[in-house]
Structures are given as C-alpha cells and as structure tokens.
Amino acid sequence: MTATTSLLTDHYELTMISAALSDGTADRQCVFEVFARRLPTGRRYGVVAGTTRLIEMIKDFRFDPDEIAFLRRTNVVDEPTAAWLSAYRFTGDIDGYAEGELFFPGSPILTVAGTFAECVVLETLILSVLNHDCAIAAAATRMVTAARGRSVIEMGSRRTHEEAATAAARAAYLAGFTATSNLAAGLRYGVPTAGTSAHAFTLLHDDEPTAFASQVKALGTGTTLLVDTYDISQGIRNAIQAAGTELRAVRIDSGDLSVLAQQSRELLDSLGATETKIVVSGDLDEYAIAALAAEPVDIYGAGTSVVTGSGAPTAGLVYKLVEVEGRPVVKRSENKRTVGGRKTAVRRHKPTGTATEEIVVSQGVPDHLPNDRLLQHSYVANGEFLDVPSLADAREHLRQCLISIPWEGLKLSAGDPAIPVVMVSAA
Amino acid sequence: MTATTSLLTDHYELTMISAALSDGTADRQCVFEVFARRLPTGRRYGVVAGTTRLIEMIKDFRFDPDEIAFLRRTNVVDEPTAAWLSAYRFTGDIDGYAEGELFFPGSPILTVAGTFAECVVLETLILSVLNHDCAIAAAATRMVTAARGRSVIEMGSRRTHEEAATAAARAAYLAGFTATSNLAAGLRYGVPTAGTSAHAFTLLHDDEPTAFASQVKALGTGTTLLVDTYDISQGIRNAIQAAGTELRAVRIDSGDLSVLAQQSRELLDSLGATETKIVVSGDLDEYAIAALAAEPVDIYGAGTSVVTGSGAPTAGLVYKLVEVEGRPVVKRSENKRTVGGRKTAVRRHKPTGTATEEIVVSQGVPDHLPNDRLLQHSYVANGEFLDVPSLADAREHLRQCLISIPWEGLKLSAGDPAIPVVMVSAA
C-alpha cells in the first residue's frame, strides 16, 4: 500500500496532462461532472455514498518523491510534468449532492471545476470511490427497506477486497445497517461493530456445551450463541442451558431459515427464553430478507450480497468534461441524454413532501418553486476544504429522502427510476 | 487507511480469541483450510491469485498501539487479549497452491497450521484477499482465452474500489493481460502500464486535429489516438494526418465494434497506415471479446467486467477449521463434500500431460503415480517466511496449467469443472 493515493490513477490521466502542459491547454478552466447514464437494470434509485471519504482523499492528494521517481523511470511523464505533479494541490471548486441523497440517471452528483490538469488527474480516484460506495449503498438500502425496521448487520468483509470491505461497511451503515463485523470501519468511521463467534469456536472445543459455557463466561449472557454447528434444536437447548433465559440471541447460519426461525422461536419460548432474539445469516440478499418478513426473525446478517452490490457491483458513474472556458462541450457520438455545460439541480416536491421530479438546468438556474430543494452543496471552494456532514447526518438524510420518494420507488421489483430527471438547457 | 492490516478483520475473530484465551483452548494446535465448495455457476475452473500479496500482509500482521487502544475503548477485547494481540507474530506453517494454479471445488488452496488463536485471527484477511483476487483472475483468464493471442489491457480501475483496482490489475496481469491502466500496480507489482488519452483531451482542444497534433507532439507517433469523440471516419483521417502512417494505434470506445473495426481497418489501409493497430474498448467481457475474433482488432481494453469478476465478483472461498490437536473436525450440518482433517493434494495427468483429476487425501498422502504433480508448496515454515515465486512465474505457471487441462475446460459456455476432485479419507 502506498502512503498516498495519487497513483490510484489511470496512466492516461498523466499523459494527457503531459500533452496539455506542453501545448498550453492544461490551464484552461474546465468543469467536470459525475453522473450515471442509467441505473443498474431495474433499480429505482441510486444512493450517493463515498463523497466524504473521497473529499478527504482529494485533500491529501499528493505525489511523493518515490512515486515521481517511478513515473520518470518508466517514462510515464516528462520532466515538466513531474515538476507539476510534485507541486500538486487542488485549488478549484467541488460541489455535489450530500451523502445519503438519492440520484437518478443524469443527476450531477459531483461537479469539479478548476484547470483541466488539476481536475483530470482526480478522475480515476473520484470514480473508483463513488462507483464502489454508491453501488454498496444502493444494495444496502434495498436490504434495509426489505427488513422493515428489523436490524441488519453487515458481515461481508471476507467476500470482497480487504480495503473495499471497510468502505462497504461504511456505505452499509450509511444505508441504515445497524452494525458491521469490520473492525477497521469501527476505528476509521465510528461504525458500531458486532460479532461473537463462528463454527470454528464450537469445533475447537470438546463439545458444544463446553464451547457455549466458555463463550458465556468470557462474553456474558449478552452474547449471541451460534447454534447450527451440529443439531439446531439441541444447540438451542445447550445455549439456554449455558446462558439461561437471559441469553441475548441465538444465530442460525444455514438451512431453510424460514422454517428454522419458526421452530427456534417456539423452542426458545417453550424454554422460557421469550426475550432471546433470533439472528439469521447465510446468503441473504434483499429478496431473501423480504421473504422472511413474516417469520420471527429479529436480526439479519448480510454478507456477500451487500459487499458485491447484490448483482450491481459498480454504480456506472462517469466523469465527463462538460465545460471549457465557459463553453459547453459534449462528445458527439453519445446518446441524446448527454447535455454539455455546468448543471444546477433541484428536486421538486408536492406540498405533501413527496418528490415529483428532478430539474437539472445546464448553464443556468432552475425556476424556484415552493418545496424545491437545492441538491448541490459546496465541498471545496477555491481550494479550501469545507467542513463535511457526519456519517450520522448522511444516514439520517437518506432516511428522510426515502420517505420523500413516491412509494413505488421503494419496491424491490424491477422498475423505472422513482422520479424523472428533466434536463433543461438554458443556453 | 490504517498503517497495519490487522483491523481488516471481523469483530468475532477477536471475541473468539478472548474466550479461547480465558478457557485455555487458544493454544490448541489447529489446521484451517481454504477451499471453494463450488465454482461460480457454469465456470469450469478457478485460478489461484493473491497468495503472494497475502503472505506479505501476514508477515506484517501486527496490532499497533492505536488499534489496541480502540479495541480496549470499545470493549471488543479484554486486557489479556489486548496483551496477546500486541505481541502477535504468526509462528505456524502456511502451505498452499502456487499462484496461477487452477483449482476446483474442494481443492485445498491454502492450509494454515498453528495455534487456534494465531490462525483464526487471520481468517478475514485471508478470505478477503483470496476471494477478491481469485475472482478477478478467473474472469481475466477467460478473457485472455477468448482473445486468442491478441493483447488485452486492463482498464477498469474506475469501476471498483480504489485499492481493489490495484489488486485487480495485478490479478489480470497474472491471468495474461499485457498491461494495466493502473499506475499503482506498476509501482507496487511491476505490472506494465499503458494509456494515452480520453475524450476529455479532445474536447479540451478547439478541434480534433489540434488535439491529435498536440498528443503526437508530446507522446510521439508511438501513441494511440482516440478517434470516436466526433465522427470516427473523420477521426481516423485526422489521426493519420497528425501522425502519419507511422501511428501506432487508433482506439474506438463506442458503437458497434464489429462493424467499426472492419471499416476502420479498411480506411487505415486505404490511407497507407497498414501497420497502425486497432484498439477497441467499451463494456467488453469474455463473450464480447470472443464475438470479435473474426474482426481486424489488435488489442482489447477490458474494464468493468474484469474488475467485477464478470458476473462472479467473489470466489466463494471459505476458511474452515479441519483439525484440532490432530483430530479431524467437521460441522455436522454441512453437505457431504466436506471432509475433516488436513488434506494433501496432487493433480493426476495422462502421459501426454493432460490433467485427468485431482486427488485430495485427508490425513494421509496420495499414492504417487507417474505424471502426478504435488500442488502444495510451503510459504511459511515455523513462522519463517520463505521466498515466493515472482508474478512473472505465476503468469507462466497459469499458462502451462491452461495447456494441461482437457480442452473442454477452456470453453466459455457453462459447464462442469474441467476435472473432478476425488476426495479420499485415509482415516
């Protein structure tokens, strides 16, 4: 792992800077925008996540001497470009949607303005962070919706890249998950962490009662005992034997969770453990969670599906040059949705608070109607990095946004974006 | 980003250690194995990748004082466990398949032996690294196979988490890709990097001829000009106008690549640029690459599909306790494929060199037949970290392995594993 993040960058960003420095265009004032041309198939909304994490990385975006030496040695850049990179500081403006905001095809979720060179060098990092975190947050939000107020714990670290795991835990918490298994997410982002034991702990011991007794002795009756290493019914009896009816929870990680949850609830109740909760895990996605709605489940553990975006592992966001020296630009071969020029976005609402549409105006400002909400906020102004909302703020913001969209937008089934984006060119 | 990798770990690994330290089982000698119960649906082989990267991380696996303070402050561990973690050094044995080796359901690709505590604390990191890198390598290998000797360049950094991008670039190179766009992969792993320019560079300039002239001036005629910002035919004319017939390559990033490759070849040839190569990119996966086999394409650029595992973003590897103090252990509720006990694996071949099956023996050694190949090598012996093969070695090893499997195994279509794994219990 390098100390800086500057080489988490595509080679061509630097060759472009090299050419632009030598022909004098590197200093042209540009505007780049991040948006999705479409949502993953059937998804009704996207969720903005990762922006705060990204802004911190941009603040520290530097090329250290080892990295410069590598770029020179391999001839990726020439000497003037190396000097320019060595002195790099972002001095422009960054505006964007808040973390936790919903987005739709065409929503300009991040706008980066400055010289061509200082903006283009950030492209790869910006897209890596946002494409990953937004993908996880969208999948996680669907799971939270499917859980209908029950807790969901993120436990997918082992199913994704080790650093992606930590970002995924953050994005899932933003989406409303109650905790993560990932300790680094606890240290770095203050996400509550949770976990008690795996099957290996039971197998390590001579028998299940010994393992449970040990766990309760070490962690107290406020722990969760994993009861499916051998026979689940016997496991539950052993659990209550070890911890008494004060046991906080049992976890079931395999089998037909629907049937097992019911049987376990009946057995726990019959043993007097009426307050002991049932945690289920094992390949749960939003559909499996929804299918358990009628069962006596208290807590869901989600792993693979959340960290891989439940079928949509990347958010499809692009970073496009839309303005050069005040002139709107657009690639001709693109489809008609793409509009050049810097955009301003508002979300329009009924008086009841229900969102109706998003108005995105190129090179102008939307008419202001009552109940409109401006969607863009300043993160960086003239190179000054402003205070950012907390992760808790982002989590609450998303909760409010979900309340505001038309109810169809929360359906798990495939459908159109919950609200349309109306693109207006003021020019 | 923390300096160490120790908190890239699930909470429950540490609570298990806490309980095991207090009941005296933490020091029991254990064997854990990494294997896949199944391959992603329809896949015919898995590819081992990430092991070298992992072993380096295990070598440096330490809990620093800030991390220990966090674990105490949040009550994740008690004081004796904190002391144990502070002193952590892996002192056991790690054996495994070589990077670039193929694997199948049940192949014991990594074996970790030592005390329960020292082995279990590595679980999350081991699985994160291997599940990610093996997933990317398998998808990338299919793309290389589909490309039939043509070059494939990895350019997906922006579609995955920023650190995952670097690991993905490494895994794709191992799989036979010729280069990556990711600069950090160049610095960290010596992967060749490549890249020239994006549409933004053309849009930055007053017109396409000016942009091309600038790029050629800065980067020489050995560069690749991106010709699809406006009209592709005019783009190709402008490219040859700017660089002459010495131009190394043109890139097309949109549209019907099959038709466009043919038209572009004809046009280049008619302009005398018969040696100018054609690079195509834009949502290419192994099937799209295969579909272009008959077209005059020289180089493929693959992005999203490779970094997201082309539909299988995680390899499904698990880390299971199989032996405690020499006694095989197994979770009763698992399916019949799971066998307890430490495994030894060989791959059996015909005299012609074609692999026929993999023999995996629990608590014993396979009969040695001529043409058998032992699959496990020592990475760590009694806490001593041994030299590991280079990335170039791994790349060549995979190439040889692909030659050795039955030809059906290389088909892109859905099918069974290329060879069966025969599980034998010697006990």
Automatic annotation (TrEMBL), chains A, B:
<dbReference type="InterPro" id="IPR036068">
    <property type="entry name" value="Nicotinate_pribotase-like_C"/>
</dbReference>
<dbReference type="InterPro" id="IPR006405">
    <property type="entry name" value="Nic_PRibTrfase_pncB"/>
</dbReference>
<comment type="function">
    <text>Catalyzes the first step in the biosynthesis of NAD from nicotinic acid, the ATP-dependent synthesis of beta-nicotinate D-ribonucleotide from nicotinate and 5-phospho-D-ribose 1-phosphate.</text>
</comment>
<keyword id="KW-0597">Phosphoprotein</keyword>
<dbReference type="GO" id="GO:0016757">
    <property type="term" value="F:glycosyltransferase activity"/>
</dbReference>
<protein>
    <recommendedName>
        <fullName>Nicotinate phosphoribosyltransferase</fullName>
        <ecNumber>6.3.4.21</ecNumber>
    </recommendedName>
</protein>
<keyword id="KW-0436">Ligase</keyword>
<dbReference type="InterPro" id="IPR013785">
    <property type="entry name" value="Aldolase_TIM"/>
</dbReference>
<dbReference type="InterPro" id="IPR007229">
    <property type="entry name" value="Nic_PRibTrfase-Fam"/>
</dbReference>
<dbReference type="GO" id="GO:0005829">
    <property type="term" value="C:cytosol"/>
</dbReference>
<dbReference type="GO" id="GO:0034355">
    <property type="term" value="P:NAD+ biosynthetic process via the salvage pathway"/>
</dbReference>
<keyword id="KW-0662">Pyridine nucleotide biosynthesis</keyword>
<keyword id="KW-0808">Transferase</keyword>
<dbReference type="Pfam" id="PF17767">
    <property type="entry name" value="NAPRTase_N"/>
</dbReference>
<comment type="similarity">
    <text>Belongs to the NAPRTase family.</text>
</comment>
<dbReference type="InterPro" id="IPR040727">
    <property type="entry name" value="NAPRTase_N"/>
</dbReference>
<keyword id="KW-0328">Glycosyltransferase</keyword>
<comment type="pathway">
    <text>Cofactor biosynthesis; NAD(+) biosynthesis; nicotinate D-ribonucleotide from nicotinate: step 1/1.</text>
</comment>
<feature type="domain" description="Nicotinate phosphoribosyltransferase N-terminal">
    <location>
        <begin position="7"/>
        <end position="131"/>
    </location>
</feature>
<dbReference type="GO" id="GO:0004516">
    <property type="term" value="F:nicotinate phosphoribosyltransferase activity"/>
</dbReference>
